[in-house]
Amino acid sequence: MGERRDGRNSADDEAAARTAEWEARGTVSRLVLGQMATQALGTAVRLGIFDRIGAGALTADDLARALATHPQATLRLLRALAGLQLLQESESEPGVFRTTRAGDLLRSDTAGSMRAMAGMFTDPVMLRAWDLLEDGVRTGETTFGTVFGTDFFGHLGQHPTLSADFNAAMSQGTRSAAEAAPHHYDFGRFTTVVDMGGGDGTLLSAILTAHPRLRGILYDTPEGLAQAPERFARDGLTDRVELRTGDFFESAPGGGDLYLLKSIIHDWNDERCATILRHIRDVVPADGALLMVEPVLPPTVPTGSHNQVYLSDLNMLVNVGGRERTEQDFTALCTASGFTLRTVTPLPSPNVFRLIEATPGT
């Protein structure tokens, strides 16, 4: 009774509608509670919970004693982290916890650790400007300065420990691109790569390691370069890299035939990006190239997309004043700066980065 040609009946339709509604409600609930999850994660990272548990298991009471935290409150936090699938509580021994595979990524001793990245992006310094997102949307202006009285990078310059944390987070965020990029672009046709704003040199080190005939120049502020000597010494590349201190809004160093910008362009508005690119255009040889490593937005958001680059775009709005861009946006930037965009090459999934190559001339 009530069955249709496709074999379904009204009861099936009603059940499907209820399921769809509850899935939609679940999506909204997760978003509503998302900031709470972020705070729980950030607190756990700052307390060092994942490092304390390590590869074994700990009781909530032992952990509270080690951290000098309140026992019951500690248990409640651990259970919240278990609900977020970062920890697992023993079913046979209540109050005993170990890390999950995702939780392992928040340990300092894990290969490919995301601890520094998680710590930085859940730090109050990174989050407080988000409290004024509504203002940013209304005005189109960055809100970080409203909160802190200076711009984001100026604030880092005033706080060396925070700057080191930021550099570590950027290094962790660059690892996936550093693993893939050297094998998906013809770096071997160049002689010297200039990494502009390359921080501790994570990407440049990977490129030089994969291409032994290349030399490198790492160009950044003193704060940005602070951890670079240690990295290049550890990777055995000290004699192939020159560290140069400078400001890419003032000039670009000569001597390279490939100029590399990784996660730089999205930090700035079009005018400031054009300034950076024009300085490179002034020194790049005619047979040289510019290589930007950035996410590239599609013209419209694909149906069913879970691409976090759109959240990154809002982070650029509130914290630094930049934005994520489409291929058309990159083409316009290059043209305005004396370059011609040649190719946009995606790195293998799950990497969100693209290799955007441009050459001198329009």
Number of strands: 11
Question: CATH superfamily of the largest domain, called what?
Answer: Vaccinia Virus protein VP39
User: What is the strand content?
Assistant: 15-25%
Q: How far from one another are the termini?
A: 70 Å
Instruction: Point out poorly predicted stretches.
Output: none
Mean pLDDT, all residues: 92
Q: Tell me the helix content.
A: 40-55%
Q: What does the radius of gyration come to?
A: 24 Å
CATH third-tier fold name of the largest domain: Rossmann fold
Q: So, CATH architecture of the largest domain?
A: 3-Layer(aba) Sandwich
Structural class: alpha/beta
The number of domains: 2
Describe this structure as you would to a colleague.
This is Methyltransferase. Residues 130-339 form the O-methyltransferase C-terminal domain. The active site is at 266 (proton acceptor). The chain has two domains: 17-110, Arc Repressor Mutant, subunit A (Orthogonal Bundle), CATH 1.10.10; 124-360, Vaccinia Virus protein VP39 (Rossmann fold). Strands 4, 5, 6, 7, 8, 9, 10 and 11 form an eight-stranded mixed beta sheet that branches. The chain has helices at residues 10-32, 34-47, 49-53, 60-67, 71-83, 101-104, 115-121, 124-127, 133-139, 144-148, 152-158, 160-180, 202-210, 222-225, 228-234, 270-283, 309-320, 327-336, and strands at 58-59, 87-89, 96-99, 192-196, 215-220, 241-245, 258-262, 289-297, 325-326, 339-346, 353-360. It is an alpha/beta fold and 362 residues long. The model has no long low-confidence stretch (mean pLDDT 92). The N and C termini lie far apart (70 Å). 48% of the residues lie in helices and 16% in strands. It has 18 helices and eleven strands. A hairpin with a 6-residue loop joins strand 2 and strand 3 (96-99).
